From TrEMBL:
Record-annotated membrane-spanning stretches: 231-251, 285-308, 336-357, 369-387, 413-434, 446-467, 487-507, 519-540, 546-567, 587-610, 630-649, 661-683, 724-742
Domain Nitric oxide reductase subunit B cytochrome c-like: 37-218
Keyword Calcium: no
GO CC annotation terms, alphabetical: membrane
One GO process term, biological-process aspect: aerobic respiration
GO molecular function annotation: cytochrome-c oxidase activity; heme binding
Keywords assigned: Membrane, Transmembrane, Transmembrane helix
Protein name: Nitric-oxide reductase large subunit
Source superkingdom: Bacteria
Gene3D superfamilies found in the cross-reference section: Cytochrome c oxidase-like, subunit I domain (1.20.210.10)
């Protein structure tokens, strides 16, 4: 007992120290982020852009789709270019030509090697020189560079307008014509792109060869190559990972000798479970889960198809009503929403089950939350869609439309409502779980951990309210990753482990006493790496070297437990044979096994593949990231969501209506489909792009020449078989669930004790 208390204290200490450090690093990012000048001037005094235009430009960019169309500093979506890398390359090529004509009176391509070297050197000098004066808050560039900037600005102003000359390029980028209708806004957008590119290549004050974004993106023309610290900390991160894995294997084998397996009870402990009215009210949540999943898959197929056909779907001009911005936003947003809905429902389902009583008015609360969620999902989706189609402007986009930030796109009003909804969910859970924790004779630690992780999931949603319309982009990214990263690599992991352990302990398949301690230890390990690991998203977003160092080392620790959870999955699987009755729970358990396997493969391996700074330097913004994103987000949390849903449905519906064969098909089709999608299409296309990025630069890996190369198009088509297998798996799940719901409900489970399929 005493030692259990001690490890809870360790957990509190780890969290307190890690969050203190994360906040401190946030302050560092704020201080070292690239400044926004009040004026950008040419040497002869002409004003190119104002600070007001740069800030306005950021808003315009976000309102026109932002991270849902291309990326800035590598964050966003991958068919259109990285705008900062694209601007940087265009400006460098244009300026080099002007320099060549000025110095040698001839075009660069006609010069001999020696003269080229001189021009190239001058170009580096011009582009890396930091002409920003902090006192006057003015950035001065040479007249020649000012001309180059003007020319590149013209290109973007045309691109975002309606000029048919650039229509084919727009199609390559999966953009629609006229996405920024107002000319002044288009100028502001160009100002923002200029500033975002300037920050990537100009030297930090007092330093040489080190830009605000730690020299990201790779662009040999302006000597943007990895910094020394980048290489050193990458090596450190690999060593740390090996050390961590060694320690973990040692610890694990030492512990395994002492751990005796639980003896499975003779009968299913949940056999005579009678769902309370509020538990039964969670059933409707699951129909929404399946509906959102199906829409997400449909939107994913359309989004992927736009990578070959620009604005059409097999000849139908679909983009007129459903442009890429909208399909991709819905795809990513619904992914988060259906998984969240499955978990919310599971939380509401298990709370009275654990407490052993139904809190007063609980059903009313569960129903009210359901309808509130429907309003939020439908409202935010429709407003985002409408705002994008009708170009309703920056205020609309920020407040009720599409904020243009990946995974956190819904307008601010919807975010606030969702936050209130999450708090209400916590309240509903707390009413049952807090008495349950108080009364628990055993299993208190597990229930407490499920509740604490759920509380953190809800409370940390508040970090998506931290930025305003004009917050510096570096700080928007800082807070956005507080949400996305701390959720998926922190509290979700804890929730997943705790809820699975809780279910197994309820089924009598693991020993409560050892599970209580193990869960706190595992949480310490997850959060020790996970909280500061947030910084691996911020290596190149205007932060200084410290972020690379801390991010690389701590995120490497995250992979350590993941290397082992695959093994835990295997141990989980063995439990299916623990007693004959367990076979009735076979498919929920197998989905939990899948969680373990994809944690190792999708999160651990594919995550670490892009994680060392030297790796992410070349591949940030390439298809390597969605390869990891799909395998980890669906593989781990999607599978968990389905496993939890099946666990709940088991208690809510008739056993006789269960079709094990449909579930078997669902399980295998989803897993095989996901593996095909990731390993036959997305990952190879990421590796192909990585090659281009290392040899020529990031701009090239994201240019139409590579993105629309025959190999890449072939790889998009290679996605189709995997997508189909996957989609059929989801349809089997839908049919399975429909059969359950249509079958008459008794409200009482009728599990087969013989253990064989009924
Ligand atoms: C189940 C756990 C995880 C989930 C669900 C997950 C999910 C995601 C998602 C959705 C993205 C963004 C993809 C995009 O923007 O297209 C991402 C990016 C990334 N993840 Fe993970 N991830 C997990 C674990 C990990 C782990 C363990 C590591 C390595 C230690 C890792 C490293 C990264 C990196 C380096 C990026 C790219 C960062 C950037 O571009 O800023 N992830 N992950
Ligand atoms: Fe992360």
């Amino acid at each position: 007992m005493k030692s259990t208390k001690r490890i809870w204290q360790w957990l509190a200490l780890v969290c307190a120290l890690s969050f203190a450090a994360l906040l401190y690093m946030g302050r560092e990012i704020w201080l070292s982020a690239p400044p926004i000048p009040d004026r950008v001037e040419s040497a002869s005094g002409a004003t190119l852009f104002t600070g007001e235009e740069i800030r306005r430009g950021q808003e315009v960019w976000l309102a026109a789709g932002g991270q849902q169309i291309g990326t800035v500093w590598g964050h966003g979506s991958y068919v259109a270019p990285d705008w900062s890398a694209d601007w940087l390359h265009r400006e460098a090529v244009d300026l080099r030509e002007r320099l060549s004509r000025q110095l040698a009176n001839n075009g660069f391509d006609s010069l001999d090697a020696d003269r080229r070297a001189v021009v190239a050197r001058r170009l580096v000098g011009e582009m890396r020189h930091n002409g920003y004066n902090a006192e006057t808050r003015t950035l001065v560039v040479s007249d020649l560079r000012a001309d180059a900037i003007g020319a590149v600005a013209g290109h973007y102003m045309t691109l975002y307008g309606t000029d048919p000359a650039l229509q084919s390029l727009r199609e390559d980028y999966a953009m629609t014509a006229g996405s920024v209708p107002d000319a002044a806004d288009r100028r502001a957008l160009a100002a923002f792109y200029f500033w975002s590119a300037w920050a990537t290549s100009t030297d930090r004050p007092g330093e040489t060869g080190h830009s605000y974004t730690n020299n990201w993106p790779h662009e040999p023309m302006v000597e943007n190559t990895p910094t020394t610290a980048n290489g050193m900390w990458s090596i450190a991160s690999v060593i740390v990972l090996l050390a961590g894995v060694a320690a973990m294997v040692w610890f694990h084998s030492a512990r395994a000798e002492h751990d005796e397996a639980a003896r499975a009870p003779d009968r299913d402990p949940l056999f005579s479970l009678t769902p309370t009215p509020s538990m039964r009210a969670t059933l409707k949540y699951f129909s929404i889960v399946i509906a959102l999943l199906l829409v997400q898959i449909g939107m994913g197929a359309i989004t992927a198809h736009y990578a070959v056909e620009g604005g059409g779907f097999f000849g139908i001009p679909l983009a007129e009503v459903l442009p890429f911005v909208v399909s991709r936003t819905i795809h990513t947003q619904f992914g988060v929403l259906w998984i969240a809905t499955a978990w919310l429902a599971t939380g509401l389902y298990i709370a009275p089950l654990l407490a052993g009583f139904e809190p007063k008015w609980q059903k009313l609360g569960v129903d009210a939350l359901f309808w509130a969620l429907i309003v939020i999902v439908a409202g935010s989706t429709l407003c985002g869609w409408l705002g994008s189609l009708q170009h309703k402007g920056t205020d609309f986009a920020f407040w009720i439309g599409n904020q243009g930030l990946a995974y956190t796109s819904m307008g601010r009003v919807w975010q606030i409502l969702l936050f209130i909804g999450l708090m209400f969910w916590l309240f509903l859970m707390a009413r049952a779980l807090i008495p349950a924790i108080r009364a628990a004779r055993e299993g208190r630690g597990l229930i407490a951990m499920v509740f604490l992780s759920a509380a953190c999931i809800g409370l940390f949603y508040a970090s998506s309210l931290a930025w305003g319309q004009r917050t510096h982009y570096s700080m928007i990214e800082y807070w956005r990753w507080w949400l996305v990263h701390l959720w998926v690599e922190g509290f979700f992991e804890v929730f997943a482990t705790a809820v699975i352990a809780l279910i197994f302990s309820r089924l009598g398949l693991i020993r409560m006493a050892s599970a209580n301690r193990a869960i706190v230890l595992e949480t310490i390990v997850f959060l020790a790496g996970g909280i500061l690991g947030t910084l691996h998203h911020l290596y190149f977003t205007g932060a200084s070297t410290g972020v690379i160092a801390v991010g690389a080392v701590f995120s490497a620790f995250e992979v350590v437990p993941l290397a082992l959870v695959g093994l835990e999955g295997w141990q989980t699987y063995k439990r299916v044979d623990a007693a004959p009755w367990v076979a009735a729970w076979r498919w929920p358990i197998l989905f939990f096994v899948a969680v373990g396997v994809w944690n190792t493969v999708g999160a651990g391996l594919l995550g670490f593949a892009i994680n060392p700074p030297i790796s992410l330097y070349y591949v940030q913004g390439l298809n390597m990231t969605p390869a990891h994103g799909h395998a980890a987000l669906f593989g781990v949390y999607g599978m968990l969501g389905i496993g939890l849903m099946l666990f709940c449905l088991r208690g809510l519906t008739e056993r006789a209506a269960w079709s094990d064969s449909l579930l078997k098909a669902t399980f295998w089709l989803l897993n095989i489909g996901l593996a095909m999608m990731v390993f036959l299409s997305i990952l190879p296309s990421g590796i192909y792009q990585a090659w281009a990025s290392v040899t020529q630069g990031l701009w090239y890996a994201r240019s139409p020449e590579i993105v629309h190369a025959p190999v890449m198009h072939a790889l998009v088509w290679a996605r189709v078989p995997g997508d189909i297998v996957f989609a059929v798996g989801a349809l089997c799940l839908a049919v399975f669930a429909a059969k359950l719901v249509i079958a008459p409900r008794t409200g009482k489970t009728a599990l087969s004790t013989s253990g064989k399929r009924a």
